Amino acid sequence: MVFEDNNYVQSLARGLIGLEMAVRQGSIKPSELAKELDIHRSSAYRLLITMEKMGYLSQDSISHRFIPNRNKLITLIPSVDDWVQVVRDFLKRLSQETNESANLGILDNCDIIYLAQEHSTNIVRIHNPIGWRRPIQASALGKALLAYLDESTRGNIIKNIDFTPLTHNSLSTSQALKNQLLSIRENRYAVDDEESAEGVRCIASPIFRNGSAIASIGISGSVRSINYQTIMHLAKIVVRIADEISAYIDVHNL
């Protein structure tokens, strides 16, 4: 990589490329950055360690891959941070009203990324770490958001989805997903029926800004608490609070 501008700080540029790769891929290891930049692995490692020391990355103790610290990154953009903080307040209400874990997610390519979570007092809690990624077709949050994207964007995402099943209930074809998306647009909510994890059921609804879907919120719990007798009641709560968030965002120009 050659930089001809004398005002260009090469080490900073390399570090930013590494950070972008980590965010785009979900994680990065020194050998991947070294290959991308055509530098020695030890140099790539020092770049990643520096970003870890500054809080932009964290290193997984098992895989040793560097993972973006989304809590740190999101604070760099106050408007986004304000928006997430507003939603966090609504998440608390959602968790309290449903007595389930409440989640906020945004889209990143073919994955949904968890930005925030609020737990209830329920003894059975579903924990989704901040920054955790799930395949969009195996997540209620993902399907709720995907259903309301414009047709072109939605079609491009579906073309790139890896339909490798996570459970026996996972959607295995693009047609099965498209069929669900039609139902989601009719009902205003999506369900993950043990599609990403055995024994876990989720409900989600999209959040809009000026008519465009930008995120989704939902609840996750055991199949015992989110069952076929309670699901309709819980879905109404999820949709109502998602609508309240959308209205708040538009009124306050967030």
H/I helix tally: 9
CATH fold-level name of the largest domain? Beta-Lactamase
Mean pLDDT over the full residue set: 88
Strand count, sense and closure of the main sheet?
A: 6 strands, antiparallel
Structural class: alpha+beta
Do you know the CATH architecture of the largest domain? Answer: 2-Layer Sandwich
The CATH superfamily label of the largest domain reads GAF domain
Output the strand order for the largest sheet: 5-4-3-8-7-6
Radius of gyration: 20 Å
Distance between the termini: 39 Å
CATH class of the largest domain: Alpha Beta
Overall geometry: globular
Considering the chains and any ligands shown, give keywords for the structure.
Arc Repressor Mutant, subunit A, 2 domains, two-stranded antiparallel ribbon, Beta-Lactamase, alpha+beta, 45% helix, 254 residues, single chain
